[in-house]
Amino acid sequence: MSRTRPRPDSLPGRLPVVIALLLGAASVAPARAQNAAAAAAPGAPVTEGNPVLPTVYYIGDSTVRNGSGNGGNGEWGWGDLTGEYFDSTRVNVVNRALGGRSSRTYLTQGQWERVRAALKPGDVVIMQFGHNDGGALNDTSRARGSIKGVGDESEAIHNFLTRQDEVVHSFGWYLRKFIADTRAARATPIVASLVPRNIWQNGAVVRNHKDYAGWAKQVAEAEKVPFLDLHEIIAREYEKIGPERVRELFGRDHTHTSLTGATLSARLVIAGLKGLPGDPLSRYFSARAADVPAAR
Description:
Blueprint: H1 14-22, E1 55-60, E2 92-95, H2 103-108, H3 111-118, E3 124-128, E4 154-158, E5 165-169, H4 171-184, E6 188-192, E7 200-201, E8 204-205, H5 212-223, E9 227-228, H6 230-241, H7 243-247, H8 259-274
Parallel strand pairs: 1-2, 1-3, 3-6, 6-9
Antiparallel strand pairs: 4-5, 7-8
Helix pairs in contact: 4-5
């Protein structure tokens, strides 16, 4: 994929806004996604807010919701900073992402079943996985890896961690499972590519188009569902503002963002959603989203 940078007037929020974020505008209290119960025990039921309204669900890992979603460890996921961009009188926004989960363990540990059981016609599920899928298929510490690629390969294992028999599938298989279940509930699936890490090479952010970002796109295209290319949208913005300032957007490592970084990512998520064909969530955006140009 070409790494040609978009024109300056196409970058969401433009440089003055980005600089303001980097210099401390993110000290303003974040508008979090609804659903205070999202930090509850794994067995807790999903809280949907107003039951008569449609719900936008986020599912994913710690880059979407970090820890309990309150910044207690100094790190934030983008999903907890998007609330102000949606009109709460028209839609619920529920962040059900959970740190440490891969596409596989989000399913096998029961998080997906709680979301699936709550889905109703008109809901939307935005799924972003990949950061944790590259781990081991079987070990005694995490056992969360999925088979690489988008094929139908599977491997039967006796899970050393859970001490249960399990059939492990490909990354693409798990995404297709989430898509199929969402459609069965007459809800809308949106596949997102994983957000980029703060890793640079020759002045450019290192891309993952040959693996998880690319595989997410392949699944979205094959299943004919909207594809939210957060990997490329955010990487291009990082390259615009440069590695020195981007360093300030991250916490203890090159993966997890600070409040400032998650605030920027949240704005770019909205830009990406507005750039999808047909702008499918346009009727749910708040006045705050009006000044966010669609990503190109």
